Amino acid sequence: MNSRRHFLQTSGVGFGWLAFQALAQAEAGNPLAVKQPHFSAKATRVIFLCMRGAPSHVDTFDYKPKLTEASGKDGRAPGTKLHGSQWKFAPQGKSGLPISELFPHLSKHVDELCLINSMHTELPAHAQSFLKLHTGNSQFVRPSLGAWALYGLGTVNENLPGFVTIAPPSLFGGAQNYGSAFLPAIYQGTRVGADARPIANAQVRNITPPVGSVAQRKELELIQTLNREKLQRDQFNPEVEGAIESFELAFKMQSEMPKVMDLSKENRQTLEAYGIGDGRATDDFGRKCLLARRMVEAGVRFVEVTHSDWDHHFKISQDLPKTAAAVDQPIAALLADLQTRGLLKDTLVVWSGEFGRTPHGQGADGRDHNSKGFTAWMAGGGVKGGLRYGSTDDLGYEAVEDKMHTHDFHATILHLLGLDHERLTYRYAGRDFRLTDVKGSVAKKILA
After folding, report:
1. Measured between alpha carbons, how far is 341 from 335 in angstroms, rounded to an integer?
2. Residue ranges of the domains in the chain?
3. What is the pTM of this model?
4. What does the pLDDT read at residue 423?
5. Could you tell me which residues come within 8 angstroms of residue 134 by beta carbon, excluding any fewer than 6 positions away?
6. pLDDT at residue number 26
7. 9 CA to centre of own chain
8. For residue range 369-423, what is the model confidence (pLDDT) as tens digits?
9. What is the distance in angstroms between the CA of the first residue and the CA of the last residue of the chain?
10. Fold (topology level) of 37-203+268-446
11. Inter-residue contact 301 to 161 (CB < 8 Å)
């Protein structure tokens, strides 16, 4: 059975006009056609701000006054000493949520934030936990969160990728973190830029055709005919399938993608708000956040933005303030910009790393890996703002109240998009797969 027909027939949604239209378009060869969600959605798009390297929750968004009082005492691990935060926390906004002084700009938007202080995952190892955060599985190749969202909902602008990842890392699983695995290749993320390279220089390569559009269309049809014949012979060949879909998408992107990526039309006030300017510490991440806003505004369903400097084993007193300062103003500007444009109410903004860090010190000035407790936050898209959900113990070692595992995190994001994580499935190798495997619960307390 056609997978898109199967999705609509098993979704529990009546075959309304939109569903019929989406099905007709999909069966006519349009896998990106808009699909009805399982139920009324709070969010229609996602911006995932990924902080690779594991931010220290006890120094950023998880206030632990008893840890400060216990500084210098023995930690749980042999030979370690507890290390209170070097930075002050203060209640912010009407909600009074405590935020570290490392985030003076973001603190002004605290009433939009839902702090999830009870995150946890299995392994305190970067590669495995990073893959788990993105695909729900650290052992096998599985579709990414963005690919699942695009598969479940389609996209409203087929001249742009439905899923874009900005400056993803080449390490920690690389392309698996935005891949589609056994889902059709059209649902994989389109990479823009690369880790450790300025995003200002990023471009989608070969976007400008060397020949006219008519000649190019004829060339493309010839290549696609050969590709389809190859695919028909092989029956199953993900590489050929991916080539077919990517060629078609690239042809459509030629006119619109360069416009979306061109920041020169933004006014000085906007650029200043995002911290964009030569030599400024906020320039690179500011550009990434502004690109994310422009993309979701243009109809991209899922945008991931990566910042990669959060692995603070050493020199945390010097490096953490620099890292936080690089993202603080741009994220605050993104939230304000989305709100001003009326986009925040149905755009889910998510902030997280792969795990947290230990309450005890590592060496004289650092923190080690901690997968048992860390913080993520969400804003907009149907989430209660000004809320502190769940908690770690008094020292910040592990989640103890309203615990949210990675599977719960994914289930909640899909729920906000109107997708039931247990019903969003894809049949492969004789069984139905889903993002959350056989686990995951929606954190209903954070839903607005």
Report:
1. 10
2. 1-35, 37-203+268-446
3. 0.88
4. 98
5. 144, 145, 173, 176, 177, 178
6. 44
7. 29
8. 999 999 999 999 999 999 999 999 999 999 999 999 999 999 999 999 999 999 9
9. 37
10. Alkaline Phosphatase, subunit A (3.40.720)
11. no
